[in-house]
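User: Please predict structures.

Assistant: First:
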Amino acid sequence: MKNLFRLLPISLGLAFAGAGCATMQDGDEPPPASQADVNYLREEIRRLNSRLEASESELGRVQGDVMASQSSQPSYASAAQVQSMQTQLDDLQRQIRALDAARAQDKKEIYDDISKKIATLLKSSSTSSSASRPPRPRSGSQTGIEHVVQPGESLSKIASAYGVKMDVIIEENGLTNADSIRVGQKLFIPD
């Protein structure tokens, strides 16, 4: 474009010089040879303007592509940012380890507490069951064996195994009914 503006005055000057020293008055047409030069220069200016517009359009497109490319590329953290993130990560890992250790300690304490409470309940249950139903005093002449109730056993199974009526076992052991036996309970089975 700069070259065009440099050529324009020269071309116009040559066109006027070639026409002679004739001066033009308002309304006078330029001589025919100079008219062709002016038309040629106008056409050349139009083509150059068109190329300039196309170049500016292409430049805008390329700038847009560059900006889109820069925005899609991952941004890289500086060394200080990486070090800061590493420090934060290390702190978080230490906190997680401390929480895990505290959780394990809490779990152990809860387990120990529950075990103590269960042991206390079992002790009080065994003492209360024996205190609430005192065994019926047996006469010295009565003999028999002691049976420990096993899982899956019922009073009727135990009675039939020993050849004794259920009512006798209920009466000898002070039971309220046949369904009141439990696993581990000791029953006296008379002969």
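Second:
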Amino acid sequence: MMSYDVIVIGGGIAGLSAAAFLSEAAKVAVIEAEPHIGYHSTGRSAAIFIRNYGNETLRALNDVAARFFETDTQTLTDPVLSPRGELLIAKPDELDALDAYCAGATGLERLNAQEACDLVPILNPELISAAVYEPDAQDIDVDRLLQRYAAVMRANGGQIITGQPVQGMAKMGAIWTITTDLDRYQAPVIINASGAWGDHIGQMAGLRPLGLQPYRRSAVIMAVPDKMTCAHWPLFGSINEDWYAKPDAGRLMISPADADPIAPQDAYPDDLVLAQGLYRFEQATTIPVTRPLRSWAGLRSFLPDHTPAVGFDPEVGGFFWLIGQGGYGVQTSPALGQLTRDLVLAQTSVLSEPIIAALSPNRFHA
């Protein structure tokens, strides 16, 4: 029986960021079902930091994360962000969506069709009524960030246990016991950072589910025409998010921006969904779609209000929810990791009380 102050279930970016910050003052273990960390959503991310992505609560998290990425030198011994930019285009019937996206946003530039094509020359100007450009959107080196969280945690005496799916959970007094096929682990605090399996882990602990729904998101890698260089292009896509593309090592990563609800699983792409997304990409550009070099799919898990749940369960002591990051998990990981530390250790957070309340799982028990 191995005992800790905190056990984190889930070795993705959410669990490891929380573990890294908590390990400064607590004995922490991360239990991951897969053979290595970052296997599911973290390892299949679009790897982009977009300051204006998400609702008001998520944008507040983005602000905290941006300060971390810009100023932290202890966790991040090397930078994990690099310039990219984001360009969103709107057809004539999508101008309302463009205006709604710009409402409350900062650092955006409104562009016409020609200005959009100057940034991404393969776009079809005849289909663009307006565009918006966020020059400060940046690429994230997801693997480097994940490994830095893991390194900090280990340096502080934390332990990462892989290849051990949780088989059972029970609480006696103030102590939780977690059982896997190989061992048992104990701690007074359990952090549920299990991604798409968040409600499953909650129910295993005897808690009511919060309504988490995983959605599939697919992508392909496609070559660009000979003699065409795309490395300097921004991420670009439709304002209604029915496709987007991003340069990737001299090629294009193209996604149909699908959001098909599925059960928690090791996700695989649907050929028909990919074909529909590639068709929408082809209609918006001037280059033909060629045979994809490879394809994959990941899961983006949302709660009903598309806002993460971060905080202790109001009904069962010592159980902490850290789920529902959707497509924002990587870029918000510094903010949610720090908030988790502050709530678990009863410290003051840099986030405002209204934002903390908006993230609390209590909202699902009202």
